[in-house]
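User: Can you write out an input/output pair for a complex, sequences first and structure second?

Assistant: Here is one pair. Inputs:
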Amino acid sequence: MSPERLPVFLARRHYRRRRVADAARLLPLTGAILFCLPLVWKGSPEGASTVGAMLFVFGLWVVLVVLSAVIARHLRADETEHPARDGAAEERPDTS
Amino acid sequence: MGKTVLLIEDEPNIIEAISFILSRDGWDVKTHANGDDAMAAVRRRAPDLIILDVMLPGKSGYDILAEIREDADHGGTPVLMLTARGQTRDRELAERAGANIYMTKPFSNADMLAAVRALAET
Amino acid sequence: MTVLNLLIVVCLSYVVLLFAVAFGADRAARLGRGSWLRSPIVYTLSLSIYCTAWTFYGAVGFAARSGLEFVTIYLGPTLVMIGWWWTLRRLVRVGRSQRITSIADLISSRYGKSNLLAVLVTVLAVVATTPYIALQLQSVTLSFAAFAETDPTATTLPDMQSTALWVAVGLALFTILFGTRNLDANERHHGVVMAIAMEAVVKLCALLAVGVFVVWGLAGGVAGTLERIEASGISRFEVSGARWVGLTMLSAMALLCLPRMFQVMVVENEHEDHLRTAAWAFPGYLLLMSLFVLPIAALGLDLLPTGANPDLFVLTLPLMEGRDGLAILSFLGGFSSATSMVIVAAIALSTMVSNHVVMPLWLHYSGTAAMVSGDMRNVALMARRLSIAGVLFLGYVYFRISGGGTALAAIGLIAFVGVAQFLPALMGGLFWRGATRTGALAGISIGAAVWLYCLFLPSFGPEMVVPQSVFDHGLFGLSWLRPRALFGAEGMDPVIHALMWSMLLNLAAFILGSLLSFPLPLERLQGAQFVNAVEHSGTQAGWSGGMAQSEDLLIMAQRIMGAHEAQALFAAAARRQGVAGYLPEPGPDFIQELERALAGSVGAATAHAMIAQIVGGTAVSVSDLMAVADETAQIMEYSSRLEVQSQELARTARQLRQTNEMLTHISVQKDEFLSQISHELRTPMTSIRAFSEILRDTGDLGPEEQKKYAAIIHDETVRLTRLLDDLLDLSVLENGQVDLNIQSGSLTGLLDRAVRAAGGETGDFVIRRDRKAEQIELTTDLDRLAQVFINLISNAHKYCEAQPAVLTIRPEVNGTQLVVDFIDNGSGIQASKQAMIFEKFSRIGVSKAGGAGLGLAICREIMARLGGDISYLPGQKGAAFRVRLPLEIDGPASQQGRSKEIRSKETDSP
């Protein structure tokens, strides 16, 4: 979407929600990169154990589940990416 | 037998009445109860006179009259028009369509007979 | 009782329980008590069909062979689920808004409702899924055999083939029973989903129970377990980077592309918000499913004799330790995993096969005529049932032919690579407007070809399908075409090798094809809809309406959606348009709506083709194209604002036009009314006058004739009186001066009375009634209602020309409304006349002495007075009238609405 259509400033609530959506997008990328870490440790003698990798993978997994739950609590699926324009325009004076 | 009259009318009781009156006067009365193929009946019967009702199932009496008038063989057949609507507008319409005589229902039998006789002489 | 017998009993009871759960859930949903059936938790659990028997048993086997690598199969889906905001949300939104029925439907719908594409996707899905179903059958038979082996009392081992056959037959039965209960794919399969959710719980509990037993029962706690793993053969983390990353990606792609996952994730999705729960709960489920896999594998390797099948450790560990109960639970877990996968896969594939292969063929060969007259609904349901049986049969045949060997065990990943070929077209379609049908066709075809050549066909082993020489020297002796070393990529893992090449070539063909081709207008519109699904919903390709016959459309819709739903849809549309009755104007909006509704039953491409057969072509208007072409936001916004304004203008104009029409109509109607009255009064008077003159003037009438003519006069007088009565009745009703005589009574009694008064049944007039359904108490003006019924019955008697005439009276209670249909088997009333039959003095067909044409007009007034209505029900075989009224009349409130309008129309009529 082209930026000029959107209001420059958003109410705090909308701003917060946008950043939560950003976090929701970032989470799988972060997860994917971190899940590849055991491959890096493969070279070192103490890192090459299955138990170590297993504890890391499952630990990370738990963290991702918890983060995902926290983010999901703050997002509503049926909400559009851009809040209603009228609403945003109304609230603009509060923040600018 | 005398001359043939074709009665195009859909009310059974009225058909019966007119048939009765005209048969006694020596007419050979043929009847037809539908508007759609009325023209075919005219061609088939080749009547000397036609009595035509305005409100018919299928096609209106005015349309049938217009068809008769356009027909090469039967265009000159005298037509007596009957209507139950009885407004001046209907009379105008009938005359414009080429009816020789126009009668409003209900009619007196004597008038009907007189009109038919008058038409038969022309 | 031996363990084996016990197992059989438990297993059968479990199957009975599954049927009961599915039946109960279906029933609850039908009775409208199903809200709890569709909680986000149930949705999450239904997603667990991702974990098939291959993961239930096979994960431990996988871990026993290659250590921690097994976890990649779960990591991919985890990443996709926690990334729901990006992909799944969009997928589900599009799926719901376009009423998508399957992944083939989605791809075909996105690329201009192309059926060719749908067929390609369907075929590839069937090819990739059939072996997978065979794998599930194998797992059940293998686990069954494992029990049999440990049971010393079992004299004969159960026959593997027949076990598999029985399982396949049972699954087909279940799927047909609960999967094809309703046609509309958007009316979700509550029973199936509930049964699957229950199976999800069973398999999780089973695996956790075995895990807990292994960790705390066998290894002596967490620390002991970790030591055992360190001591086992899989203690070293020796995963190849390519496989680790590749398999994670592959499983992520499979989650999005597997037909069965698409079914539960998108098609069965009740509410988009459920994704929010599934976003963390499903990864949590996967985490628990894989938590004990390594411990079980390590202990199995340690305790069981070498050579024991690691794929069955979950089962054989408890068996060896003599924990029969636990082993049975574990068996049920595996059984659950296998059956739930097969059921959903069969539903998903059968929907695709019937919507995209069978129905189009049927349509092609039967043409429009059959579409209107044939029973489409049954054809579609039958197609779906046969497809289910066919898919399961194929799975069984595959199992028989492959002999249940090791080739089958590898099929899990192979199938994943196969379905992953949909991904570029799927994701490209959702995110990239430039993606075209040509690109999608090219991508999927090339990807599928590479997959078949490099992975699927070689998986049968050398010399089975692909000759050894091709393995060694390549196709046609071209060494760069060796299936395991395409373009010289030697030494790679076969799965990763095939994945890499098929996806690279698929993607390249998809992008190149899209860039070089030019999309059709319909494709561009659909593309805009799909890509912008989350931001806003745009316009769709419009139908050029007007040419369509609403009645033809209704007849077709009834065949597919069922009479009830179709009539409700049409009536609602008619109400919105301000048209009375069941036939809305076939405007573009309405046809659009109808197409979507039909798409829910037969898929987008078929629905589009069917409507096109009746309506003609689609019209892509300039404004539609602007919506596609205009990338800039301002114009989008501006045009949407304009659209609102122009809609408002159109509405106002329509209202003005309607008012004007009504005023003109009223004036014309007044003249017409006077003229009609004149005609109706003069006609009997003509006979009376003529015959009374005959009686007066003719002297020689015989007594017979005298009697006959007097009788005619008498009859015509009665007719005249009845006409005056009717006129007065109508006038009283229209002026609202009538006092209702409210009584209570049963519909049966009322109909009995009406039938009697209308002359009863005769040899050539049969009345078909459903006395059981007529047991309805109602409180209203029974005399007036009887008058309406009498009129309808005698009309059928008079005008239905069938021999014998059969009038069917069908009552039905709809909430607080009573609906009674009167349907005869005659030729019905022409569409052009349907609108006028309730007008005064309208007579259809040959007029017969007796009726003045006021009967239905009076009926309409009476029904308005009783707070209901009467309407002509088009699309039935004969003439059909529908009477609707409240079961209990709510006093004078019913004297409003249309009677007021009529009153104002005829204030100065006599």
